[in-house]
Amino acid sequence: LSSNSGSGIVSVGVGSSCSVTGTSTSSYSGLPQYPRRSPNKIGSNTNYTVGGIGTSSSWNSDLSSAASKTPNYKQLYEEEKLLTNGLREEVKAAQKELKELEDALENSVGRRRPSEVEQRKMERRISECEQELKLIEKLRAESEKLHAEHRALIRVVSRLNREQ
């Protein structure tokens, strides 16, 4: 099976593993996708014809070609190391971005909410205003009472002046 779609090439032969070459970018994050190599990949991408499957000659030729083609472990290690380092850098960048977004979110939420000191200060001011309001109502009632007494005294004085 061979397929060539997008920026990756997929090829699969009988007795071989699937490999994807090339890089593509993820549709939602913009980060590149790296291909992974199978640790037990022999590197054989031989495509067999239908008549050759299962015959002893094709089996023997596969065994001899697999034995003669030893994988270059150093190259595989270097490729895997580069891939791993690239992925580590991407993870660090994503973690840094996440931390920045969390800090920005915390700052925006913190601006909307008054601090505890300011909140206690406002509650204390509200309490003082309520006490002043009660005092004002009490003083109005007392003032009304004094006005009523004053009018009563004026009536008494005016009667006394008429009688004399």
Automatic annotation (TrEMBL):
GO terms for molecular function: enzyme inhibitor activity; phosphatase regulator activity; protein kinase binding. InterPro entries: PP1_Regulatory_Subunit (IPR051226), PRKG1_interact (IPR031775). The keyword Repeat applies. Residues 15-46 are annotated as: Disordered. Residues 15-30 have a biased composition (Low complexity). GO terms for cellular component: cytoplasm. Keywords: Coiled coil, Developmental protein, Repeat. PANTHER family: MYOSIN BINDING SUBUNIT, ISOFORM O, PROTEIN PHOSPHATASE 1 REGULATORY SUBUNIT 12. This is PRKG1_interact domain-containing protein. It comes from Schistosoma curassoni.
